[in-house]
Every structure is written in structure tokens, then in C-alpha cells.
Amino acid sequence: MNAGTLTLSTFDTCHYQIGRLDAPTLKAIGSVQAVIADDKSTVLLRIALTGSRRHQRVMATLCLNPADLDGLIGQLQAIRDIRRSSLGGANGA
Predict the structure, then answer these.
(1) Residue 6 forms beta bridges with which residues?
(2) Most buried pick, 1, 5, 23, 43, via CB within 10 A?
(3) pTM here?
């Protein structure tokens, strides 16, 4: 990891489908990273899913400009608050 990369989390309970909407759901391990782009003007949000077999790998990279990043942070804070209020104020972390 370099100074411009932050691994947000790794998840063991991911699922994905390839192709059709009725394709089988495959289990995966996923990771989410935020990386500052080389030009320093955007943040890359990298999402990687790795299936049970090595060749089963899906990756997506989203380029977030400063307004996108602020919006995403606001949405994540809002969903955290909604979840917290549904738990009766408990953190649940």
C-alpha cells in the first residue's frame, strides 16, 4: 500500500452474476480501495471480487471527481444514520 491508497474493507459475503440477469449467483470475496489518481485530481474507487476459482475475478474502477467524492461521503453518512436510528441508536459496528 502506498500513501495514496486506502483499503476501505474486505468482505467475505459477496455475490455476483456474469451475463444474464438470471445467471447463477456466484460467491466471492470482495475488497474496496480508494486510490488517488496519478494526476491528483480524482480518486479511483476500486472494487474487486474474487470467486472461489482463481479465474473468477471481476474488477470495477470508478473515477470520482471532488463533487462525486463529497456526494458519496454524504450518502454513506446518511445511510449510516438511517441504520443507526433503525437499531435504536446503537452503533452496531
Answers:
(1) 34
(2) 43
(3) 0.71
- Is the CA virtual torsion 48, 72, 25, 86 positive or negative? positive
Residue with cell 482463481: 54
Q: List residues bridging with 61 in a β-sheet.
A: 46
Q: Minimal CA–CA distance to 3: which of 48, 32, 36?
A: 36
Residue 15 CB contacts under 8 Å (≥ 6 apart), including other chains: 25, 26, 27, 28
d(CA 26, CA 14): 8
pLDDT for 14-28, tens place per residue? 888 888 889 888 889
What does the H/E/C string look like for the chain? Answer: CCCCEEEEEEEEEEEECCCCCCCCCEEEEEEEEEEECCCCCCEEEEEEEEECCCCCEEEEEEEECHHHHHHHHHHHHHHHHHHHHHCCCCCCC
